[in-house]
Amino acid sequence: MNLKKLLHYAIILACPIATYIFPTPEGLSVLGWHILGVYIGTILALILKPFPAPPLLLAAVAISAIIGNTPAEVLADGTKVAVKQGSVLDGYKSGTTWLVFAA
């Protein structure tokens, strides 16, 4: 494996890892902060292209579902924050989503 590809992997993995290392910004839930890291890593992966897009997007959805189904975070006002299992895949019901993927 060449150095360039290893550097791409390191950059992609650094985004989600950074959201676990650095504190959550004020006004943002911990879950939202971690999901943001996954999405930024996914966008960078789509730009750097270490793998084809479908496996990258499938991995991003799977990781988001895993992170979102961990025990719920409780906010200061007592509200529980968690992602419902079905809501992770709700965006894929739209025909527009599949039209964009096919393009």
Keywords:
single chain, 103 residues, mainly alpha, two-stranded antiparallel sheet, 2 strands, 60% helix, membrane, transmembrane
Quote the average pLDDT: 81
User: Mind describing the biggest β-sheet?
Assistant: 2 strands, antiparallel
Please bin the fraction of helical residues: 55-70%
Strand order of the largest sheet: 1-2
Query: First CA to last CA: what distance?
Result: 31 Å
Q: Which regions have little confidence, pLDDT < 50, spanning 5+ residues? A: none
Please tell me what the overall shape is.
flat
Structural category is: mainly alpha
Number of domains: 1
Number of helical elements: 4
Query: H/E series, N to C?
Result: HHHEEH
In quaternary terms, these chains amount to single chain
Radius of gyration: 15 Å
β-strand percent reads under 5%
Total beta strands? 2
Transmembrane segments: 7-24
InterPro entries: SLC13A/DASS
Main location: membrane
Keywords: Membrane, Transmembrane, Transmembrane helix
